[in-house]
Structure formats: C-alpha cells, structure tokens
Predict the 3D structure of the following.
Amino acid sequence: MIDQRRADGSLRHLITLEGVRRDEVEALLGRAQHYARALARGSAYNRVLEGVQVATLFAEPSTRTRVSFELAGRRLGAQVLNLELQLSSRVKGESMLDTVYTLQALYFDVLVIRDAEAGVLAHVAAHVAPQVSVLSAGEAHLSHPTQGLLDALTVREHKGAIDQLAIAIVGDIRHSRVARSAYQVFRLLQARELRIVGPPGLLPESEEFPGCARFETLEAGLEGVDVVMMLRIQKERFAATRVPDAAEYFARYGLTPARLARARPDAIVLHPQPMNRGIEIASEVADGPQSVIRAQVSNGVAVRMAVLETVAGRLAQ
Ligand code: NCD
C-alpha cells in the first residue's frame, strides 16, 4: 500500500482513499461541507495557503477536475500554475519523474497529477522531496480520490447518513476510477447496501468490489435504491473493437425516466461527467428533478479546498 502520511501520521499525499481512516474522511467531508456553505454564500476565501505554489499536471483531458483544483487553490490564497503536459517536455521523452524533479527544483509545494498509467502517482510520491505533496486528479482506471469525496459529500448533503442508504453504481465499472474511489468511500462510511450494475463485460473481476451485489440488468439493479451513480463508458481504456454500440447500450443500460422509477421516488442521480446523453443517460434524467449532477461540480471545489488545506497542513494550522 502507498504510504501517504508524514512521520507524525498526518496526510501528506492523497493518491488513493485506500488506507485513509474513517475519521480522516469525516474530517475532510466536514471541512468540505463548511467550504460548500461558504461558496454558496459567496464568502469562501481565506489565506491559509498563502505563499503555497501549486502545479497541475494533466496527462489526460479534464475540465471540471483541473478547473476546480485551480479555483480551490486560489480561494485559499495559493498560487496555481497549470502545465500543459502535451506541450511540455514529456513529449520529448522526459519521464514524469524528471518533470516532477524540475517542478520540485522550482519550489512547487503541491503537485496535482492526472495520469493514464497505473502506478505513476505512487512512484512520484515515493520520490519527491519531503516538503512536496502529491494529489491525484485521477489515475488510470484505479483511483480518483477527490471525486470519491465529492460524491460522498453530495450524497450526504441530499440524503443524509450514508449508512442508511442503498447505492447503485452503474455502467462501465471495470474501467472506472470514479467507481473504485466511490466504492472505497461508501464502504468506509458503511453504506447499508452497495450494488454494481452493468453488462457482464463491463463489470470488474469477481475479486474486486467485495461486499457489492452484482446485477446485469438495470431494472433489477435499481429496484428500491436511494442513490444511482451513472458512469461514462471509458472508451479510451479498451480496444476500439470492443466498445459497446451506443444505441444498443442505451436500449439496455441507458438511465431513462421509466427505469429510474424502479428506484425509490426520492432517489438521487449522480454522474461524474463528461456525460454522454442518449448513451448512458437520457437528458430528461440528467436535467430532471432527481439529478444532483451540478451539485457534484460545485462540491468538487469545496472538497478540493478541504484536501489542499489538509495536506498543506503546516500552513493551515
Ligand atoms: C471522470 C474521470 O476523468 O475519471 N471525470 C471527472 O473527473 N469528473 C469520469 C470520466 O471521465 O468518465
């Protein structure tokens, strides 16, 4: 397991939610909730990261995650620089670690990294200087910890205590880092029931997601749940010939109002975005009264503020 802590036990990196304790998750969510309320009031500004230099390095496309990390840092008084990895020297063959050593020599304090290759984040975290924190903004199919936290915050805000809830994660679970981090946080917070729902080819290996009931039809998988988390088909993570046909997928696994009616009447619908309307979700649902998809985006800023404040702890204390 990746060591994400300092010698005093405090969180230094956030690369995965695996190994993060429940009290730490509760503290992060509590802080995020505080910032979410302040954001809604228009007063989420402080200087706890004054003088802190944050770099974002995204080797895969991103809109919400990158922008919300940047806004979160700025609201806490940090300076944030976005590096376009495609344009920088990585394309000339410089390894991620060399790029990171350069940023370290330029006195960056926090590196926010998204990478398509599993293991790169842990490798970087194991080699950076002790004063540098590494935050994952999404790693391959493995992990997207701030997304997991923002999903938990959104569910808690709309539905209350997670331990009372039945939650269905639906779609391309096999290739989804969002599903893995959501599973970890919901399990840690002891969701009453966790389900994974999708076509057999998109469900994970049987040893993954222990404790989850598996469903291969949406109709059965959604029966009576409080929370429906939809996922995008991660086309970029499998061979082109094996990508499911869009129309066929929607016919069997698309979330339509009729299918959503199987869930509890007060169920909420999440989607990390980008959404493929008419493939995994119908517009009537995405824009409908049960959708909390836009609240997820707002909560992304609050969660990233909480995470940045927590790992740059010397300044927050
Ligand atoms: C997700 C990602 O990149 O993992 N997007 C996000 O961060 N909100 C989900 C996806 O790309 O499907």
In short: The chain has two domains: 22-144+299-311, 145-297.
